[in-house]
Fold this sequence. Notes:
The complex is a heterodimer.
Chain A: H1 3-27, H2 29-51, H3 98-134, H4 136-150, H5 154-165, H6 169-195, H7 199-206, H8 211-223, H9 225-247, H10 259-268, H11 275-302
Chain B: H1 3-31, H2 49-58, H3 69-73, H4 83-95, H5 113-148, H6 153-167, H7 170-184, E1 186-187, E2 190-191, H8 220-226, H9 230-267, H10 270-277, H11 282-319, H12 325-334, H13 338-366
Antiparallel strand pairs in B: 1-2
Amino acid sequence: MTQQDRRDEEMHGRRADFRYALHLMRGNKLVLVGLVISVGTLLLTGLSHLLVNPALANQQPLALRLCWNNPLINWGISNVKTCPTSYPLGTDAFGRNLLQMIILAIPVDLQIAFEVVASAVVIGVFFGGLAAYAGGIVDEVILRITDVFLAIPAILLAIVLIVVLGRSLPTLTLAIIVTWWPYYVRLMRSQVITEKEKPYVERLRAMGASSPRILYIHIVRNSIYPILIQATLDIGSVILTVSALTFIGLTPSPLLPELGNLASQGIANIFTAPWLILFPGLTILLISLGFNLLGDGIRDIFDPRLRR
Amino acid sequence: MRLYVYILRRLLLMLFVLFALSLLIFYLTRGLLPPTSALAAYITPRMDDSAKLSVARALGVATTSCPSFQAFTSLQNGCVVPVWEQYGAWLHNALTGNWGYSLLPNVAPLTPTWDTFWNRFPFTAELAIAAAILTIALGIPLGIISATHNNKLPDHLSRLVSLGGYSVPQFWFGAVLQIVFVLYVRVNGLGLLSTSSAVATSCGICFANPGTVTTFTGAPVLDAFLSLNGPYLWDALLALILPALTLAITSVGAITRIVRSSMMDALRQDYIILARSKGLRERAIVYRHALRNAILPAVTISGLLVSYLMGGVVVVEIVFSWPGVGNASLAAANVLDVNFLELYVLVTAVIIVVTNLLVDVAYGLLDPRIRY
């Protein structure tokens, strides 16, 4: 059998694997729901600046603040101001259309979430792989550093970092990356430790492949799936963390349309304008639920114990 | 390795972690910004330069030989104390029991950080313990029901709870609870449950004048219990319900999920078939045979849950205006109060590391196959 044949066979095997995964996916309704929500969120992210003019976020028609005119929901609170024109989800504390602000906010949160998760995966794969493959003193040093970061609640370290480095979206992202990577290092390390004992690694070594090549091309390719599943699940968690941080006031500007930021206007008006916190929070819940359903479903599909 | 050698080794590692953490926090709050920023919270517009300089000296940021405040702000040679020296001084003080003064707003000037922290800590401990109890009381039964009724209605409901639990933003869940129990579920014209202060006096089913309690521990529920003040205990518990539920929601989701999957694994094992064929009752099979084996993974992640809870208190305490340390830590970070932050981080780290150690030891005791 030539090398080309082997490659073809491997490709065929992979394709069949993928087709089988799709087949399993079709049978799992929850994954489909998750897929629809995640894809919908991504679409909305791409289209948000076409749907809503981003300049609207800077306009503050203060006369329109905290008004509501959606007849389908009656809050049952006295003194709810009625809006002169139609605002489906009411207006926020600056008089902006809440629905438009939510649409503008989704890409902000999603971008941070993807940046954080991607960086954490890269750092985790690099250092986790290194720790497991090199072993010895390298392993010990990397593990002890993760110990330090895992002994402190992520949100506290993030708070201190943002206060010190300044309140902006890049520092927010950086602060969350700093608290997020240790989990991926640990996860990757445990994957590689079992993977590196397999016979094919021995074979590669006998063929004279260099250690970085064995580790970062062959071993990583065979142990990346759990990391990617965790990454899908973590998109939701990162969005929760970002919004919690901006909610407690670590935001570049109170005007920034960001889901936690929008909700934090709501906590001051919670008993007079409940919609201010309800809808941004509901959006966060929906997005994070979507990615969690997707990640859960993918894990079930790739879990060999549940397969066949 | 013998067990006590293992524990000793882990405790030594904890010392290293604490040292590294204190260094990290100190470097972040004092080392990254220009030295004048350490003074910002102390300086008032009316202070003249000599007063500012003495503040800088008192904080240990400026040297005693520094001639003037201008020299300090222009970072003249030998005027600013290097960060590692500042850290050394702080570490020496901390090890001798002097944690400095706290900068927090709403705290009287010259209140030692140690007192500020430990006055607030019982509130946080009470909240976290209540949330931990809720997590166990809700999460484990939900997981069991889910596994024993696989793919039936109870399973779907409990999966919904667990998925929702780790997808919901805690601050939002807390806010929704407040909206529901203040605006919509009302008794005698008042909201049903109290939502903001530690002990309620304005909620539908509270006692208006619960009296006072002696401060034994600082935690309202425990104090009321020890002082045998029934109405106060009731009010303190009512005030605790909503924040504790909010704090617990994420970990309930996590525990339910873990217990469900490990129970389903356990129920598939051969010894369960043996137990069934012996004719044991279903209860005995589920609780005595399956649960005993399925509880181990839940024990493993309880270390992680403590970390969740300790992080969650920051947000939950802010949403509910709970007078604990989590709430204060945000204020401390905002004014770069290094003393309070260090104490908070170190106490939290000790709690997390010790829990992890206990979990690992308990794991070995519960599962005889594990050796250290």
